[in-house]
Structure formats: structure tokens, C-alpha cells
Amino acid sequence: MKKITTKLLDEVSRKAINSPRKRMNHNFHEDLGAALQRLLNSMEPYSYVRPHRHADPDREEVFVVLRGTLLAIQFDDAGEITDCIKLNADEGNYGVEIPSRVYHTVISLEPGSVAFEVKNGPFIPKTEGSSAPWAPAEGTPEAEMYVRELVKRSGF
Fold first, then answer.
1. How large is the average pLDDT for residues 139-149?
2. Could you tell me the end-to-end alpha-carbon distance of the chain, in angstroms, rounded to an integer?
3. Which of 56, 53, 47, 41 is nearest to 22 (CA)?
4. Which of 29, 77, 78, 108 has the fewest CB atoms nearer than 10 Å to its CB?
5. Any idea which fold 6-153 has?
6. What is the structure's pLDDT at 71?
């Protein structure tokens, strides 16, 4: 039995804090080729996940907030925000399912935020073809400004 406990959330959050990208996954699936990917995704505030989509093969993605506050944003093909939700269990916004082939990102708004994430496998690393061409690359000075602008444009 694999258990999701406060101790595990704390451990993954500590790893995220110490990570250069300010986020960390804890996989429950045994290998990256598993047909069903299940993981904890711990993110610190304003860590940047470049907007991307899952296509070829089509894959939906589910995020359920376990702790903290996350902002899930969906975009059209031109980079305009089409929908967003602030995920926070205390506010009654628990999760979101992102359709396949839809650009999206998730941004942490609170230290120690952790989501349970589920998507079909196998794991396919993001490529230029899946990343949004209108969004800055991770690790660039533009990325930090962009993620803050997304939060502002989303009204949070």
C-alpha cells in the first residue's frame, strides 16, 4: 500500500524548496513507461512550468490539490487565457482535469503546495513540439516575468 501522509508531503516539499526549479515530483508508478502515471507534484511559489499540451498521443491530465494553493490556467493556441481556477481545498476548489491537446500550466501561489497528478503514460518528456511557442523557455529571465504576469492576468 502506498500512502499519502503529511510526512510524505513535507518530505517532497523540502526537496522542492532545495531544487533549482523549485518543484519536485514523487512518483507512485514504478517506471516512466507505466501506462498510468500517478505522482505528487510539489511546487513552491512562482516556479515556472512552461505552458504545454499533451498530444500524440492525446492525454488528459488531472490535478487534485492536497495542500496549499495552485493556479491552473488553460490557453488557446495563440496564448490567450481561456479558463483558470485557483485550487485550494479550504475554498472548495479541489481539482481540475485538463483536456488533451489544450495548452496549460500550473503555478504555485503558496509555499508547500502539493498536488496529486494523474495522466496516462508512458512519460514523454516535453519537447519543443509540446511546449507553447509563445511562452518563454524555462530558466530564462523572461520566464520569471511571464509567470508573474499570468497570475496578474488571471485575477489572482
1. 95
2. 38
3. 47
4. 78
5. Jelly Rolls (2.60.120)
6. 98
